[in-house]
Amino acid sequence: MPVPPLGLFEGLQTESSENRAGKEIRISLLKPHPRIYSSIATIIAMVLNPGPKSAAFEPRLLSVDPSLTCSGWALFALESELLLGVGKVRSLPASSPMARRLEDLQGKISLLLEQLELTDNDVLVCEAQTTMRDPRAAFKVEQVRGMFETLARNRGAAVPGRLNPRSVQFEVIGLHGKQLSREVVKLSAAATVAKLYLDRLTQLGLVQKANELCRHQDIVDAVLVGHLGISRLRSARLSSTPIEELFAERKAKSRRIRAA
Q1: DSSP run (H or E) holding 21
Q2: Domains plus CATH for the chain?
Q3: Splitting the chain (260 residues) into consecutive groups of 10 residues, what average pLDDT does each group show?
Q4: What is the pTM of this model?
Protein backbone atom coordinates (compact mmCIF):
# COMPACT_ATOMS: atom_id res chain seq x y z
CA MET A 1 0.00 0.00 0.00
CA PRO A 2 1.42 3.42 -0.89
CA VAL A 3 1.86 5.92 1.90
CA PRO A 4 -0.99 8.47 1.81
CA PRO A 5 -0.10 11.93 0.49
CA LEU A 6 1.35 14.26 3.07
CA GLY A 7 -0.52 17.39 4.04
CA LEU A 8 -3.13 17.27 6.76
CA PHE A 9 -1.87 13.85 7.84
CA GLU A 10 1.84 14.50 7.55
CA GLY A 11 3.76 11.78 9.36
CA LEU A 12 1.28 8.98 8.65
CA GLN A 13 2.85 5.61 8.04
CA THR A 14 1.06 2.62 6.59
CA GLU A 15 2.45 -0.89 6.64
CA SER A 16 1.45 -3.44 3.99
CA SER A 17 1.60 -3.68 0.22
CA GLU A 18 -2.08 -4.29 -0.44
CA ASN A 19 -5.46 -2.84 0.44
CA ARG A 20 -8.71 -4.81 0.50
CA ALA A 21 -6.93 -8.00 -0.48
CA GLY A 22 -4.03 -7.27 1.84
CA LYS A 23 -3.06 -9.29 4.88
CA GLU A 24 -2.49 -6.46 7.28
CA ILE A 25 -2.67 -2.69 7.45
CA ARG A 26 -1.57 -0.60 10.38
CA ILE A 27 -1.92 3.17 10.46
CA SER A 28 0.04 5.25 12.90
CA LEU A 29 1.04 8.85 13.31
CA LEU A 30 4.79 9.18 13.63
CA LYS A 31 4.68 12.84 14.62
CA PRO A 32 1.75 15.19 15.18
CA HIS A 33 1.00 17.64 12.41
CA PRO A 34 0.17 21.20 13.60
CA ARG A 35 -3.26 21.12 11.97
CA ILE A 36 -4.23 17.88 13.74
CA TYR A 37 -3.57 19.32 17.21
CA SER A 38 -2.73 15.78 18.28
CA SER A 39 -0.24 14.33 20.70
CA ILE A 40 -1.57 10.79 20.32
CA ALA A 41 1.07 8.42 18.97
CA THR A 42 -1.41 6.13 17.24
CA ILE A 43 -4.51 7.76 15.83
CA ILE A 44 -6.15 4.64 14.43
CA ALA A 45 -5.48 1.25 15.97
CA MET A 46 -6.28 -0.91 12.99
CA VAL A 47 -5.84 -4.52 11.97
CA LEU A 48 -7.16 -5.81 8.68
CA ASN A 49 -6.85 -9.44 7.66
CA PRO A 50 -9.49 -10.63 5.19
CA GLY A 51 -8.54 -14.30 5.34
CA PRO A 52 -9.77 -16.04 2.18
CA LYS A 53 -8.99 -13.91 -0.86
CA SER A 54 -12.60 -14.01 -2.05
CA ALA A 55 -13.75 -12.28 1.14
CA ALA A 56 -11.63 -9.24 0.29
CA PHE A 57 -13.90 -8.31 -2.64
CA GLU A 58 -17.29 -8.97 -1.10
CA PRO A 59 -19.67 -6.16 -0.15
CA ARG A 60 -18.83 -5.17 3.41
CA LEU A 61 -20.46 -3.78 6.51
CA LEU A 62 -18.67 -1.19 8.62
CA SER A 63 -20.27 -1.01 12.07
CA VAL A 64 -19.47 1.85 14.43
CA ASP A 65 -19.86 2.61 18.12
CA PRO A 66 -19.52 6.41 17.91
CA SER A 67 -18.03 8.44 20.72
CA LEU A 68 -16.46 11.84 21.09
CA THR A 69 -13.59 10.24 23.05
CA CYS A 70 -12.93 6.95 21.24
CA SER A 71 -15.09 5.38 18.53
CA GLY A 72 -14.84 1.64 17.94
CA TRP A 73 -15.40 0.08 14.53
CA ALA A 74 -15.62 -3.38 13.02
CA LEU A 75 -15.54 -4.46 9.39
CA PHE A 76 -17.42 -7.53 8.14
CA ALA A 77 -17.73 -9.27 4.78
CA LEU A 78 -21.46 -9.42 4.03
CA GLU A 79 -21.64 -12.75 2.21
CA SER A 80 -19.17 -14.85 4.20
CA GLU A 81 -19.96 -12.85 7.39
CA LEU A 82 -16.25 -12.94 8.20
CA LEU A 83 -14.90 -10.34 10.61
CA LEU A 84 -12.25 -8.55 8.53
CA GLY A 85 -10.92 -5.91 10.87
CA VAL A 86 -11.42 -3.89 14.03
CA GLY A 87 -10.09 -0.62 15.34
CA LYS A 88 -10.57 2.66 17.16
CA VAL A 89 -10.61 6.32 16.23
CA ARG A 90 -9.43 8.44 19.14
CA SER A 91 -10.27 12.09 19.70
CA LEU A 92 -8.13 14.86 21.10
CA PRO A 93 -8.28 15.24 24.89
CA ALA A 94 -11.25 17.01 26.47
CA SER A 95 -8.99 19.97 27.28
CA SER A 96 -8.90 20.84 23.56
CA PRO A 97 -11.54 23.22 22.15
CA MET A 98 -14.59 21.39 20.82
CA ALA A 99 -14.15 22.83 17.33
CA ARG A 100 -10.62 21.40 17.16
CA ARG A 101 -11.73 18.02 18.44
CA LEU A 102 -14.43 17.77 15.80
CA GLU A 103 -12.10 18.93 13.02
CA ASP A 104 -9.54 16.38 14.12
CA LEU A 105 -12.13 13.57 14.20
CA GLN A 106 -13.50 14.45 10.79
CA GLY A 107 -10.05 14.14 9.28
CA LYS A 108 -9.35 10.84 11.01
CA ILE A 109 -12.71 9.34 10.03
CA SER A 110 -12.21 10.46 6.43
CA LEU A 111 -8.79 8.83 6.41
CA LEU A 112 -10.17 5.60 7.86
CA LEU A 113 -12.87 5.32 5.19
CA GLU A 114 -10.28 6.05 2.52
CA GLN A 115 -7.91 3.37 3.81
CA LEU A 116 -10.76 0.85 4.02
CA GLU A 117 -11.72 1.83 0.45
CA LEU A 118 -15.38 2.20 1.38
CA THR A 119 -17.46 2.32 -1.83
CA ASP A 120 -21.04 2.11 -3.11
CA ASN A 121 -20.73 -1.65 -2.65
CA ASP A 122 -20.55 -1.28 1.12
CA VAL A 123 -22.83 -0.46 4.06
CA LEU A 124 -22.22 1.60 7.21
CA VAL A 125 -24.31 1.25 10.37
CA CYS A 126 -23.84 3.18 13.61
CA GLU A 127 -25.14 2.37 17.06
CA ALA A 128 -27.98 4.75 17.91
CA GLN A 129 -28.04 6.92 21.01
CA THR A 130 -29.03 5.22 24.24
CA THR A 131 -30.91 7.77 26.34
CA MET A 132 -31.35 11.51 26.58
CA ARG A 133 -30.50 11.77 30.26
CA ASP A 134 -27.68 14.11 29.29
CA PRO A 135 -28.82 16.00 26.16
CA ARG A 136 -25.57 17.94 25.89
CA ALA A 137 -23.46 14.77 25.81
CA ALA A 138 -25.91 13.11 23.40
CA PHE A 139 -25.68 16.10 21.05
CA LYS A 140 -21.87 15.89 20.99
CA VAL A 141 -21.90 12.18 20.16
CA GLU A 142 -24.56 12.82 17.52
CA GLN A 143 -22.11 15.09 15.72
CA VAL A 144 -19.58 12.26 15.59
CA ARG A 145 -22.24 9.79 14.45
CA GLY A 146 -23.24 12.23 11.73
CA MET A 147 -19.64 12.50 10.54
CA PHE A 148 -19.35 8.76 10.02
CA GLU A 149 -22.68 8.61 8.17
CA THR A 150 -22.13 11.69 6.02
CA LEU A 151 -18.58 10.79 5.02
CA ALA A 152 -19.71 7.24 4.18
CA ARG A 153 -22.55 8.59 2.02
CA ASN A 154 -20.07 10.89 0.28
CA ARG A 155 -18.18 7.77 -0.77
CA GLY A 156 -21.38 6.16 -2.08
CA ALA A 157 -21.86 3.66 0.76
CA ALA A 158 -25.37 2.77 1.91
CA VAL A 159 -26.42 4.07 5.34
CA PRO A 160 -29.77 2.35 5.94
CA GLY A 161 -30.25 3.41 9.56
CA ARG A 162 -29.02 2.84 13.09
CA LEU A 163 -29.27 0.05 15.61
CA ASN A 164 -30.58 0.72 19.09
CA PRO A 165 -28.33 -0.54 21.90
CA ARG A 166 -31.35 -2.18 23.53
CA SER A 167 -31.91 -4.18 20.34
CA VAL A 168 -28.30 -5.36 20.51
CA GLN A 169 -28.72 -6.33 24.16
CA PHE A 170 -31.97 -8.17 23.47
CA GLU A 171 -31.21 -9.90 20.15
CA VAL A 172 -27.47 -10.59 20.41
CA ILE A 173 -26.49 -10.66 24.08
CA GLY A 174 -29.79 -12.12 25.29
CA LEU A 175 -30.48 -9.61 28.06
CA HIS A 176 -34.18 -9.24 28.83
CA GLY A 177 -36.36 -7.43 31.32
CA LYS A 178 -35.52 -4.26 33.20
CA GLN A 179 -32.52 -2.07 32.43
CA LEU A 180 -29.40 -3.62 33.93
CA SER A 181 -26.38 -1.77 35.30
CA ARG A 182 -23.80 -0.64 32.78
CA GLU A 183 -21.18 -2.89 34.36
CA VAL A 184 -23.36 -6.00 33.92
CA VAL A 185 -24.08 -5.04 30.31
CA LYS A 186 -20.37 -4.50 29.58
CA LEU A 187 -19.39 -7.86 31.06
CA SER A 188 -22.16 -9.63 29.16
CA ALA A 189 -21.16 -7.88 25.94
CA ALA A 190 -17.52 -8.93 26.28
CA ALA A 191 -18.54 -12.51 27.07
CA THR A 192 -20.76 -12.63 23.97
CA VAL A 193 -18.02 -11.30 21.70
CA ALA A 194 -15.56 -13.78 23.19
CA LYS A 195 -17.97 -16.62 22.45
CA LEU A 196 -18.64 -15.50 18.90
CA TYR A 197 -15.37 -13.98 17.73
CA LEU A 198 -12.48 -14.70 20.11
CA ASP A 199 -10.66 -16.95 17.65
CA ARG A 200 -10.94 -14.35 14.90
CA LEU A 201 -9.89 -11.46 17.17
CA THR A 202 -6.90 -13.52 18.25
CA GLN A 203 -5.98 -14.06 14.60
CA LEU A 204 -6.27 -10.33 14.03
CA GLY A 205 -3.90 -9.72 16.92
CA LEU A 206 -6.27 -7.66 19.05
CA VAL A 207 -6.28 -9.97 22.10
CA GLN A 208 -4.90 -13.30 23.21
CA LYS A 209 -7.39 -14.11 25.96
CA ALA A 210 -11.06 -13.36 26.56
CA ASN A 211 -10.42 -11.28 29.66
CA GLU A 212 -8.40 -8.82 27.56
CA LEU A 213 -11.55 -7.70 25.75
CA CYS A 214 -12.48 -5.47 28.68
CA ARG A 215 -9.72 -3.11 27.51
CA HIS A 216 -11.46 -2.70 24.15
CA GLN A 217 -15.08 -1.95 25.05
CA ASP A 218 -15.49 0.37 22.06
CA ILE A 219 -14.52 -2.44 19.70
CA VAL A 220 -16.68 -4.95 21.60
CA ASP A 221 -19.72 -2.72 21.11
CA ALA A 222 -18.94 -2.16 17.43
CA VAL A 223 -18.59 -5.91 16.84
CA LEU A 224 -21.99 -6.55 18.44
CA VAL A 225 -23.60 -3.82 16.33
CA GLY A 226 -22.03 -5.42 13.28
CA HIS A 227 -23.24 -8.88 14.27
CA LEU A 228 -26.83 -7.64 14.48
CA GLY A 229 -26.37 -5.58 11.33
CA ILE A 230 -25.24 -8.68 9.41
CA SER A 231 -28.37 -10.49 10.61
CA ARG A 232 -30.65 -7.65 9.47
CA LEU A 233 -28.96 -7.40 6.08
CA ARG A 234 -29.19 -11.17 5.62
CA SER A 235 -32.92 -11.03 6.38
CA ALA A 236 -33.38 -8.22 3.89
CA ARG A 237 -31.55 -10.18 1.20
CA LEU A 238 -33.49 -13.39 1.77
CA SER A 239 -36.88 -11.65 1.90
CA SER A 240 -36.15 -9.12 -0.86
CA THR A 241 -36.99 -6.36 1.62
CA PRO A 242 -35.44 -2.88 1.30
CA ILE A 243 -32.64 -2.76 3.85
CA GLU A 244 -33.94 0.53 5.27
CA GLU A 245 -37.04 -1.28 6.53
CA LEU A 246 -34.95 -3.72 8.57
CA PHE A 247 -33.23 -0.83 10.33
CA ALA A 248 -36.45 0.98 11.24
CA GLU A 249 -36.74 0.00 14.91
CA ARG A 250 -40.54 0.03 15.08
CA LYS A 251 -40.85 -2.35 12.14
CA ALA A 252 -38.02 -4.53 13.41
CA LYS A 253 -39.72 -4.72 16.79
CA SER A 254 -43.07 -5.69 15.28
CA ARG A 255 -41.35 -8.45 13.31
CA ARG A 256 -39.78 -9.80 16.49
CA ILE A 257 -43.18 -9.78 18.23
CA ARG A 258 -44.85 -11.63 15.35
CA ALA A 259 -42.00 -14.14 15.22
CA ALA A 260 -42.38 -14.81 18.95
Answers
A1: none
A2: 12-259 (3.30.420.10)
A3: 33 38 42 33 44 65 96 94 92 93 94 92 93 79 96 97 92 82 90 95 91 94 97 93 84 46
A4: 0.79
